[in-house]
Automatic annotation (TrEMBL), chain A:
<keyword id="KW-0479">Metal-binding</keyword>
<comment type="subunit">
    <text>Homotetramer.</text>
</comment>
<dbReference type="InterPro" id="IPR036324">
    <property type="entry name" value="Mn/Fe_SOD_N_sf"/>
</dbReference>
<dbReference type="InterPro" id="IPR001189">
    <property type="entry name" value="Mn/Fe_SOD"/>
</dbReference>
<dbReference type="InterPro" id="IPR019832">
    <property type="entry name" value="Mn/Fe_SOD_C"/>
</dbReference>
<dbReference type="InterPro" id="IPR019833">
    <property type="entry name" value="Mn/Fe_SOD_BS"/>
</dbReference>
<dbReference type="GO" id="GO:0004784">
    <property type="term" value="F:superoxide dismutase activity"/>
</dbReference>
<keyword id="KW-0464">Manganese</keyword>
<dbReference type="InterPro" id="IPR019831">
    <property type="entry name" value="Mn/Fe_SOD_N"/>
</dbReference>
UniProtKB/TrEMBL annotation, chain B:
<dbReference type="GO" id="GO:0030145">
    <property type="term" value="F:manganese ion binding"/>
</dbReference>
<keyword id="KW-0464">Manganese</keyword>
<dbReference type="InterPro" id="IPR019833">
    <property type="entry name" value="Mn/Fe_SOD_BS"/>
</dbReference>
<dbReference type="InterPro" id="IPR036314">
    <property type="entry name" value="SOD_C_sf"/>
</dbReference>
<dbReference type="InterPro" id="IPR019832">
    <property type="entry name" value="Mn/Fe_SOD_C"/>
</dbReference>
<keyword id="KW-0560">Oxidoreductase</keyword>
<dbReference type="GO" id="GO:0004784">
    <property type="term" value="F:superoxide dismutase activity"/>
</dbReference>
<feature type="domain" description="Manganese/iron superoxide dismutase C-terminal">
    <location>
        <begin position="128"/>
        <end position="229"/>
    </location>
</feature>
<dbReference type="InterPro" id="IPR036324">
    <property type="entry name" value="Mn/Fe_SOD_N_sf"/>
</dbReference>
C-alpha cells in the first residue's frame, strides 16, 4: 500500500502582498521553510508508519503518533492560514465579503468589536506556541460559532468542528517584525483576514474547508 | 534552588509568607498585604558579551522585555492570588494557578538561564569538572555524547519550551528532560543547566535554523554555575 505524500501548496499571493502588516521576509521564511519542514517531517513519519503497519510493529506505530499529529497539524494549520489571509487592499479583506458570517458573529458576540476583543484576548492568553481559531461547530439545534485556542500545532479536527479562520501565534509568525510586541501583530492581522474565504468555510462543510490539503497530495 | 540570583527572590517570598500569616493571625481583614515583589535580576554580563553565539539584540530583548514581562505578570498574579485568599475565593485561586505556573516559571527559568550562560572570556564553554563531570560521564559516556542527546532533545520540542540537564533528587543521577512552555523544573528534579528553545531565544539571529543555535550555545555555557547547583 502506497501512502500519501504531501507537497507545499503555493501561496495564493506574493510574499510581499501582506505588507506592511506581515513582512515579506516573515512570509517567505514561514511558507518556504517552516511550512515545508512540517511537510517533510510528516511525509517521513507517514513512511515510517507504513513500514510499521506492514511489519505489524505496534510499539513503533504508537511512538510515531505524536510526530504525525504535530507535523500533520502544522501542515493543516498553515494551509488553512495562507488561504484565510489576503492583501489588505483586496475586497476580500472587508467583513462585508462575509455577510452571513458577520450576521452570526453579531448574533453571538453582540457586535464585531466585541468579537474582535474576545478573539484578541484569546490570542494573547496563549501560553507558549499555538493558534487562535474562529470555529463553526455543527450539531445541536443550530450551528454555533466559538473561539478556540490550540497549543503548538494541534489542528481543529474535533467532531463537527469546521475552522473558519485561524491566526498563527507562534513567535516565528511575527517576531522578525513585531519582536515582543505581539499585541500589535494581533491588531494588524485584521487588515489581512480573508473574509471571503471565511464566509465560504462558514457556509460549507469540513471537506470544503480542507480541500486545500487534498490538493497538496 | 541554590542560585544567587533567585536567593533574594526566595527570601522576599518567605518574608511575604510570614507577613501574610501574621496578618491572618491578627485578623486584619481589609488591610493591604505587606509583600515583596519579584524583580528583574541584572545580567551578570553585557548584552553583547555572548556574541557571536547569541546576538546583543536578542539578549537585550530577551532580558529587558520578555523576562521583565514574566516578572510583571507574576507579580500581578500573586497580588490577585493574595486578594482571592483573603476573600476565601477558591475559584479565583484555582483560576490563577496556570498564570502563576507560567509567569513564575518564566521568571525562574530565565533567571537560571542567564546564570548558566557566560562569555567565553569568563569561562563560557569550558567543560565541567569534578562530580558533575563524573556524573555526566556515568550517565552518557562523555560530555560530547551528552551534548548530542541534549541537542536532539531540544530539536524534538514541539512548540515552545526548554531542555534541562537535571539531577534526580532520589537517585542523584543527571538526566536530560524537556519542559513545555515555561513549566519550571520543580519537585523530584533539580535544575542544573537550561537552554531556552522558545523562538524568541534565537529567531532574530538564526530564524528557522534552530539547530545552528543549539550547536553554538554550548560555546557560552557556564558549567561552573551548573557545578554549583549539582549536589
Amino acid at each position: 500500500m502506497q501512502g500519501a505524500t504531501y507537497s507545499l501548496p503555493p501561496l495564493p499571493y506574493a510574499y510581499n502582498a501582506l505588507e506592511p502588516h506581515i513582512s515579506a521576509q516573515i512570509m517567505e521564511l514561514h511558507h518556504s521553510k517552516h511550512h515545508q519542514t512540517y511537510i517533510t517531517n510528516l511525509n517521513a513519519a507517514l513512511k515510517s508508519q507504513q513500514e510499521a503497519i506492514q511489519t505489524a510493529d505496534i510499539p513503533t506505530q504508537v511512538s510515531l503518533q505524536p510526530g504525525i499529529k504535530f507535523n500533520a497539524g502544522g501542515h493543516i494549520n498553515h494551509s488553512l492560514f495562507w488561504q484565510n489571509l489576503c492583501p489588505a487592499n483586496s475586497s476580500d479583506a472587508k467583513p462585508s465579503s462575509a455577510p452571513k458570517l458577520v450576521e452570526k458573529i453579531k448574533a453571538t458576540w453582540g457586535d464585531e468589536t466585541k468579537f474582535r476583543e474576545a478573539f484578541k484576548t484569546a490570542l494573547l492568553g496563549i501560553q507558549g506556541s499555538g493558534w487562535g481559531w474562529l470555529v463553526k461547530v455543527e450539531g445541536g439545534k443550530e450551528d454555533r460559532l466559538v473561539i478556540m485556542t490550540t497549543k503548538d500545532q494541534d489542528p481543529v479536527v474535533g467532531k463537527g468542528e469546521i475552522p473558519v479562520f485561524g491566526v498563527d501565534m507562534w513567535e516565528h509568525a511575527y517576531y522578525l517584525q513585531y519582536l515582543n510586541g505581539k499585541a500589535a501583530y494581533v491588531e494588524n492581522i485584521w487588515n489581512v483576514i480573508n473574509w471571503k474565504t471565511a464566509e465560504e468555510r462558514y457556509l460549507g462543510s469540513r471537506a470544503d474547508a480542507f480541500k486545500v490539503l487534498k490538493a497538496s497530495m | 534552588m541554590s542560585t544567587t540570583l533567585l536567593r533574594s527572590f526566595i527570601f522576599r517570598s518567605a518574608l511575604r509568607a510570614s507577613a501574610s500569616a501574621s496578618s491572618r493571625k491578627a485578623g486584619l481583614a481589609g488591610t493591604t498585604f505587606v509583600r515583596g515583589k519579584a524583580t528583574l535580576p541584572d545580567l551578570p554580563y553585557d548584552y553583547g558579551a555572548l556574541e557571536p553565539a547569541i546576538s546583543g539584540k536578542i539578549m537585550e530583548l530577551h532580558h529587558s522585555k520578555h523576562h521583565n514581562t514574566y516578572v510583571t505578570s507574576f507579580n500581578n498574579a500573586t497580588e490577585q492570588m493574595a486578594e482571592a485568599r483573603q476573600k476565601e475565593d477558591i475559584q479565583t485561586q484555582i483560576a490563577l494557578q496556570p498564570l502563576i505556573n507560567f509567569h513564575g516559571g518564566g521568571h525562574i527559568n530565565h533567571t537560571l538561564f542567564w546564570e548558566n550562560l557566560a562569555p567565553t572570556s569568563q569561562g563560557g564553554g569550558e567543560p565541567p569538572t569534578g562530580g558533575l563531570s563524573k556524573a555526566i560521564n556515568d550517565s552518557y559516556g562523555s560530555l560530547d555524547a551528552m551534548k548530542e542527546k541534549f541537542n536532539a532533545a531540544l530539536a524534538g520540542i514541539q512548540g515552545s519550551g526548554w531542555a534541562w540537564l537535571v539531577q534526580d533528587t532520589q537517585t542523584g543521577n543527571v538526566i536530560i528532560k524537556t519542559y513545555a512552555n515555561q513549566d519550571p523544573v520543580v519537585g523530584q528534579f533539580r535544575p542544573l543547566l537550561g537552554i531556552d528553545a522558545w523562538e524568541h531565544a534565537y529567531y532574530l539571529q538564526y530564524q528557522n535554523r534552530k539547530a545552528e543555535y543549539f550547536n553554538a550555545v554550548w560555546d557560552v555555557i557556564n558549567w561552573k554555575a551548573a557545578e554549583k547547583r549539582f549536589k
